[in-house]
Amino acid sequence: QFSLLHKEENAHDNALWSCAWGRDTAPAEEAATEPKEDNPFDFDKKEHPPKDFIVSGGLDDIVKVWDLQEDHTLKLRHQLKAHALGVVSVAVTSDGQTIASSSLDSTLCLWDARSGEKKHMLNFGPVDLWTVGFSPCNKYVISGLNDGKISMYSVETGKPEQTLDAQNGKYTLSIAYSPDGKYIASGAIDGIITIFDVAAGKVAQTLEGHAMPVRSLCFSPNSQMLLTGSDDGHMKLYDVAHSDVVGTLSGHASWVLCVSFSGDGKHFASSSSDRSVKVWDTSERKCLHTFAEHTDQVWGVRYSPGNDKVVSAAEDKSLNIYYCPPNAIV
């Protein structure tokens, strides 16, 4: 059954604006210790289960890293301080090693997830940046800027690698990297969605489907579909290859602030300023469940790497974790 597993009240001292899951595939304590008297003939060595953690950012300028305990409670691992204003977006590499955060102070920070150490701080000057994301290979971090450009930086060096320009001069509110590494999609304040061909470094398609800002978008795990959420209260599913709208989903009573696919692509989650989190069936395009556990608008929602949990971050200072059965159907 769909259920609320844990509510971390007052996770930050102020509104939460963003959240992300991380999965550390080689947990630190095992990685750090030398094996005692290792028996080379012991073929039953246990693989260590991956450790899941959650990253949150908000109006209090702080990025927090939380370890998910076995009883689904959260234990604070790090408080990362470097930003001078609110943290609007956080992301984690697929190997769980690096965290990116962007802030209203026009900086992007890269952090070591294990040690909490700041690796790089990129300053964009007077330019606003909003969403951050990582390439599927974890080598690059991308960010959308207020002039319609998307900048790509090396995670290792912090140096600029590439700039993609939509040439529309419109504020980029949301970005997503396709899991196959071929495309970057961006959603603008005027509702236009641009899909860039990364290798060619140019615009591949422009999608018009929303009349209001597109605050969130994400690719399906097979990179064939793009899901968008907008202030018009709707979500749209696009067939990337043919630029067709294959579905429009309505159900939220207000702005759709964030969308996130499950790792198998069967479900996706959405959050809204109507204070709810919804879980949807992708193929049926129907809502499976509505969580109404927040008391204010829900800025961030993310599916867990294990496909069975969702985290949400809201204006009410709470970080909520839900159980979402991976086999749920309409």
Short recap of the structure:
The protein is mostly beta strands and 330 residues long. The protein contains one helix and 28 strands.
- Gyration radius, to the nearest Å? 19 Å
Average pLDDT, all residues: 91
Structural class: mainly beta
Percent helix: under 10%
Report strand %: over 45%
> What form results from the Cα inertia axes?
globular
List unreliable stretches of 5+ residues.
Answer: 30-36
Calculate the terminal CA-CA distance, rounded to whole Å: 13 Å
Strand order, sheet with most strands = 1-28-27-26
What's the main sheet like?
4 strands, antiparallel
Number of strands: 28
Summarize the helix and strand pattern as letters.
EEHEEEEEEEEEEEEEEEEEEEEEEEEEE
What does this structure look like?
The chain is an all-beta fold and 330 residues long. The chain has 1 helix and 28 strands. The strands form 7 sheets. The chain has a 4-stranded antiparallel beta sheet with strand order 1-28-27-26, with no helix packed on it. Strands 2-3-4-5 form a 4-stranded antiparallel beta sheet, with no helix packed on it. A hairpin with a 3-residue loop joins strand 19 and strand 20. The longest helix is centred in the first third of the chain and has 5 residues, at 28-32. The radius of gyration is 19 Å and the shape is globular. It starts with a strand and ends in a 7-residue tail after the last strand. 46% of the residues are buried. Mean pLDDT is 91; it is low at 30-36.
